[in-house]
Amino acid sequence: MSTAAVTDKRSTLRGATLPRWSPWAIAAGSVAVAIGIGAAAGLHSHVQWGLIAALLFVLATYGIAARVEGRRQAKDRVATSLVWVAFLLAVVPLVSLIWVTVQRGVKVLDFYFLSHSMGVVADSQPGGGIYHAILGSLEQVGLATLLGAPIGVLTAVYLVEYGRGRLARAVTFFVDVMTGIPSIVAGLFILSLMLILDMQPFGFAGSLALAILMMPVVVRSTEEMLKLVPNELREASLALGVPKWRTILKVVLPTSLGGITTGVMLAIARIAGETAPVLLLVFGNRFINANPFDGAQASLPLYIYQQYGAGAEPAYDRAWAASLALIAFVMILNLVARGIARWKSPR
Amino acid sequence: MDITTPDTQEPHPAPRPPAPGRKHTATRPGDRIFLGLSRGAGILLLVIMAAIAAFLAYRASLAITKDHGNFLTTLEWNTGVTPPVFGIAVLAFGTVVSSVIAMVLAVPVAVAIALFLTHYAPRKVSGPIAYVIDLLAAVPSIVYGLWGALVLVPNLNGLFGWLDTYLGWTGVFSWDGGAPRSMLTVGILLAIMILPIITNVSREVFRQVPRMHEEAALALGATRWEVVRMAVLPFGRSGVVSASMLGLGRALGETMAVATVLSPDFLIHGSLLNPGGGTFAQNIASKFSEASEFGRDALIASGLVLFVITLLVNGAARMIIARRKEYSGANA
C-alpha cells in the first residue's frame, strides 16, 4: 500500500498518527484495487465492485491503523467508517424515492391533470386527472381536523391545566398507546359501526377514522407546548382575579398558539397520507362527488393505490404524478408548520 | 374499564359549599363548563379506546362463532363457502417474520445514523440531515409502497440470485426465480419506512447523555468509539429499546406498503425469497373489496388480533420510556 507511516517528530508525548488525508488515500486505493479485481474476475454487477471496495477499505483501514496507531485507534477508525457507511446506506433508498417520484411525476402533472377527474377515462388510457381525489381528500381531512383538533387541544388543556390523579394518568397512558394504533384498525372500528347501522361507504366515515388517528398526535404536541408557557403568566392573570377558564383562553392558549398550530398541521400532514381507513370506509370513486355525507368519494392516497392496481403504464404514470402531488402537499404543510414553530417560538 | 369511574362524579349538583379536598374548586359557571369540556374530551379519548376494543370484539365474535376451523391455527381463509373455515396462523407468521426482518435491518442502521448525527457528523451538516429525516418520516406509506413495487422490486433480482446461489442450501434463502415480491422484500421496505422514527427517538436519547460522562471518558484517553461504547450506548440502551419497539409497532400495522409489494398467497413456507404469505393488515386491505358482510366480520376478527398485538408492543415501549420521562418519543 502506498500510505506509509508518518510519525510526528515534533511531539514525543503523542503516539504516531496517520495523516489527515489517509482515509481518502485508502479509499482511493481500495476502489482502484476493487476495479482491478472486478475486471479481472469478470464480475458484471457494479454492486459487487462496490461491495469489494467497501470490504477492502475497512480491512485496509484496520490493518494500516493497527500497525501505525495501535489496535484501539484502528477499532475507532473502523467504527467511524461503519457509521458513515450506515448513513450513506440509508440515504440511497430515500434519495431514490424522491428522485423517481419527481422524475416520473412531472411527466403527467400539469394543470389539466389537477383539474379533471377519471370519469370518462379508462385506466389503461392516458389522460384523466386527480381533481375528484383532491376534492375528496380535502373534504375528508378538513372534517377530520374539525373533529380531531378541538378534542385534542381540549384534552391537552385538561392534562396540563387540570390533570391530576388517576384519570389524568390513564388519559396520558392511553394517548401514548393510541399513537400506535395501526390506521387500518381505526378503519375497522368505524367499519364495524357501519356494519351495525347498515350504511354504505361515504366520505365522512373516513373522516371519523382519520380524526381518531389525529387526536393523540394533537394531544401530544399541544401538551408539550402548554408546558412551555411560564407559570408566572398564569399566576399574574389569576392574581388579577381573572377566572381560570379565561386565563386559559386569553393567556395560556394565545401564548402557545404558534406551537399548537404547528402540531395540528403536522397531524394533518400525517393523516392526509393515510390510505387504509379510506379504502375501507370511503371506497373510491372515478367521478366527482363533492358531498362527503353521501356516496363513495375519491381520495388522493387511495387514488394512487387504485391506479397502481390497474397495472397499465398510463395508470402508473398517473400514480407517480398523484404521489408527487401528495408528497408536495405533505412537505409544504411540514415546512410551513416548522416555519411557524420557528417564527412563534417562545424566546 | 375502571378508569372512567371519575366520570360519575362529574355532574355534582350546584356546588355551593365547595367539595372538600378538591384543590381547584370550580365556583364560577364558566369554570365549571370549561373544566367539564376539557375533562369530557379526555374521557372521550378513553371511551373511544374502549369502544374500539368493544366493537371489534363484538363483530369478531359474530364471525368466530361460525368458524368451522380453529381461528388460531387454521391455514386457510375461506369465508365465502359454507361452512366457513378461516384462521390467522398464516397472517400471524407473516406479520412476525416481516417485522422481525425489518427490525434486524433497521435497528443497527438507525442507531448508527443517530450516532452519526450526535457524535460523528460535523455540526453544520447534522442539523439539516436531522431535518431531512424528519421530513422523510412524513412521506405517506402509499408512496413507499408505489416506490417499493415499481423501483425496489425490479432491483432485487440480483440480490435474490446472489442469496440463492450462496445461501440457498439453508432453505431460508432458496429462490425459485419468481418475481421478488416476498417476505424479504416486505421486510426491506418496512425497514426503510421505520428507519426515520427509530433514528429520531434514538437521537433524542443520545443527545441526553450527560456531557460529563463523555468528557470523563475522553479525559481517560478513550477514543471516540470507546466513548460511544462505554458512555453513550449504556446510557441510551433503554431508549433504543423503546425506539425499536415504536418502530416495531409501525411495522406490525403497516398496510398499504405491504399490500402493494407482496404477492400474497395463503400459505406458510420456509423460504423468505419465494412469494407468498401475508400479514394481518395486508390481508384486510386485499380481501376487503370482495368480502361479504360475514367476510368483513372475519377480517375484523383478524384486525382485533392486530389491535391487541400493537397495543401490547406500544404499551411496553411506553412503559420503558416512562421510566425516563425526559425523552418521551411520542411526538416523533
From TrEMBL, chain A:
Domain ABC transmembrane type-1: 134-337
Chain segments annotated as transmembrane: 21-41, 47-66, 78-102, 141-160, 172-196, 202-219, 251-272, 319-337
Membrane topology: Multi-pass membrane protein
Main location: membrane
Keywords for the protein's UniProt record, in alphabetical order: Cell membrane, Membrane, Phosphate transport, Transmembrane, Transmembrane helix, Transport
Keyword Transport appears in the UniProt entry: yes
Family assignment from sequence similarity: Belongs to the binding-protein-dependent transport system permease family. CysTW subfamily.
NCBIfam families: 3a0107s02c (TIGR00974)
Designated name of the protein: Phosphate transport system permease protein PstA
TrEMBL record, chain B:
Keywords carried by this UniProt record: Cell membrane, Membrane, Phosphate transport, Transmembrane, Transmembrane helix, Transport
InterPro entries hit by this protein: MetI-like, MetI-like_sf, Phosphate_PstC, Phosphate_Transport_Permease
The encoding gene: pstC
Compartments in which it is found: Cell membrane
Domain ABC transmembrane type-1, chain residue ranges per copy: 92-317
Signal sequence coordinates: none
Bilayer-spanning residue ranges: 42-64, 84-117, 129-153, 183-206, 298-317
Protein name stated in the entry: Phosphate transport system permease protein
Membrane topology: Multi-pass membrane protein
Taxonomic classification: Bacteria, Bacillati, Actinomycetota, Actinomycetes, Kitasatosporales
Record bears the keyword Cell membrane: yes
CDD domains noted in UniProt: TM_PBP2 (cd06261)
Function: Part of the binding-protein-dependent transport system for phosphate; probably responsible for the translocation of the substrate across the membrane.
Family note: Belongs to the binding-protein-dependent transport system permease family. CysTW subfamily.
Region feature (Disordered): 1-27
